[in-house]
Specification:
single chain; 275 residues; alpha/beta; Rossmann fold; ProC C-terminal domain-like fold; 8-stranded mixed sheet; 12 helices; 8 strands; elongated
Length: 275
C-alpha cells in the first residue's frame, strides 16, 4: 500500500466537498503541515479548522514559494470557477502533481487542457456522505497515468468512503445520475413519509421514519438475502404491504419514475460535459 502520509496535498476550493476531504486527511493522521488550501472565501467552518489545526490557507497560488510542489492536487471548485482559478502560478506549481478532479462535467481532455498536466489526471465523482467518510466514489484515469499514481488516487478517495473504477469515462454520467444525486432521492422519500405520517396524526414522525430507514439498511447489510428477498419476506399475500406495493409498482409507479428521473439527470450531466 502506498502511504499518503509522505505526500503534500493542495486543495483548490474549500466548499462542502473540499472541507470533507480536509477533515478526512486530518482524521487519518495526515500532518496539518502537509495540507494546503486555496480558497478566496473562507467560511466559518474553514476558519475554525485553520485555528484548531494550523493548516495553510491562501487566496491564490502566488502566495506559495516557487519551490512548493504538491504531490496530490484536488480540484474542488465549481465548474464555472475552474478557468479563472487556474492562474499561471498555479499551473507551474502543479505541472508534475497528481491531479484529482471532483468537478462535475469536466472531462479528462478538458482538465488536461486547462491544467496543462499531461500524464497525471484523474476524473472523479462522489456524493455528499463523504462528509461522514461514507461516500460512494468513482474515478477514471487518464490512459497515461502510472500504477503508483493510480494507487495514490484510490487511497486518497478511500479516505471518504467506497471507491470504484470506471472502465470508460462516459459511465461517470450514469454514476452521477444514480449515486451522485442518489442521496437527494432518498431524502425526498424520507421527507415525503414524514409529511404523510405527521398529517395522519402520528407523533415523533421524523424519528420513526429515520429509524425505519436505518433499521432496514442495517437489516439489508446483516442478512444473506438481497433487497428483493427482504422485500418479499415483508410482503404477505393479500396484506397491507402488498396493497401498497401494487401502487408503487404500477405502470407509472416508482420504478418508472426513478428511471425517468435518472435518465434526465444523466442527460443533464452529459450536457454539462459538452458545454
Amino acid at each position: 500500500m502506498v502511504s499518503l502520509k509522505n505526500n503534500k496535498f493542495l486543495i483548490l476550493g474549500a466548499g462542502n466537498m473540499g472541507i470533507s476531504f480536509i477533515k478526512a486527511l486530518l482524521q487519518n493522521k495526515i500532518s496539518a503541515s502537509k495540507i494546503f488550501i486555496i480558497e478566496k472565501n473562507i467560511s466559518p467552518e474553514l476558519k475554525k479548522i485553520k485555528l484548531q489545526k494550523k493548516i495553510t490557507i491562501v487566496k491564490d497560488a502566488a502566495k506559495f514559494s516557487k519551490n512548493f510542489k504538491p504531490s496530490i492536487v484536488l480540484l474542488a471548485v465549481k465548474p464555472n470557477q475552474l478557468g479563472s482559478a487556474m492562474s499561471e502560478e498555479l499551473i507551474d506549481l502543479i505541472s508534475d502533481s497528481l491531479i484529482i478532479s471532483i468537478i462535475a462535467g469536466k472531462k479528462i481532455r478538458e482538465l488536461k487542457k486547462i491544467t496543462k498536466n499531461k500524464n497525471k489526471t484523474v476524473r472523479a465523482m462522489t456524493n455528499t456522505p463523504v462528509s461522514l467518510g461514507m461516500g460512494t466514489s468513482i474515478l477514471f484515469f487518464d490512459k497515461k497515468i502510472n500504477k503508483k499514481d493510480k494507487i495514490l488516487a484510490k487511497e486518497f478517495l478511500a479516505l471518504v468512503g467506497q471507491v470504484n473504477e470506471a472502465r470508460n469515462e462516459s459511465i461517470i454520467d450514469t454514476f452521477t445520475a444514480i449515486y451522485g444525486s442518489g442521496p437527494a432521492y432518498i431524502f425526498l422519500m424520507i421527507e415525503t413519509l414524514i409529511k404523510i405520517s405527521s398529517k395522519a396524526g402520528l407523533k415523533n414522525s421524523e424519528n420513526m421514519v429515520i429509524q425505519t430507514f436505518l433499521g432496514s439498511l442495517l437489516l439489508l447489510m446483516s442478512e444473506k438475502h438481497d433487497a428483493t428477498m427482504l422485500r418479499k419476506k415483508v410482503t404477505s399475500k393479500g396484506g397491507t404491504t402488498q396493497a401498497a406495493l401494487s401502487i408503487l409498482n404500477s405502470n407509472k409507479g416508482l420504478p418508472e419514475l426513478l428511471s425517468r428521473a435518472i435518465n434526465k439527470a444523466k442527460k443533464r450531466s452529459i450536457d454539462l460535459s459538452n458545454n
